Write the structure tokens for this entry.
Amino acid sequence: MKDTCRLYTDLAWLWPLWGDAVAEYGPYCETVTRLIRSHARRPVATLLDLGCGGGKNLLNLRPAFEVTGLDLSAAMLAQAAALNPGATLVQGDMRTCRLGRTFDAVLMDDAISHLHNRADFAAAFRTAHEHLNAGGVLIATPDVTKETFQQNRTTVTPSARGDLHVVFIENTHDPDPTDDHYETTIVYLIRDHGRLRVETDHWTMGLFTLDTWRQVLRTTGFTVHEERFEADGDEYPMFVGVKAAE
């Protein structure tokens, strides 16, 4: 089945309704900030969010850092700009972009999960490393790994804003456990003033072992530390990569 990624194009207007920007993203960003502060080998003032999407992490990180967001989707960057007036936002590919400047910290959250072959996966970490100052910190968080993936998991998230009611139904399935990817299928039940509209989406997502994450980070040049973050009963690994100080 062909990937559509409509949440990042014609359905990007739904993104603000999928998860509260502060209540749901705030605790994660507090953990990100704590890990950066505790592992950095330099003063930390600037942060690059590679794959910033609609800017919910940026909103929560702005009080602690001077933030720059990069994303491939123009539609999602428009959402990020609306949520973060005045923030520096750049359209680009996390595998290949070179911004001509470096940062004290780099965050790679949900977007890294869309890289579903090892070459692209490794290329994104090289981008992060090249954009870090010496002694800077990368935080990378997998949505799932081989060890945590649940076949045919389905989640339902209702949301409403005025007369617009949306239910996000997300299902994950791995048709071939021997490869490095799985499928996410999303059904959007959209009721605008009571009239129902049904849309669908399909993504191919990366699925790597914890050891693959560790190996790629170390090969890229990071010293690797690991933490755990818990949200809604699920536990997520968080990789902390420290770039060598000069």
Observations:
- The CA atoms of residues 175 and 182 lie 7 Å apart.
- The mean pLDDT is 96.
- The longest helix spans residues 26-39.
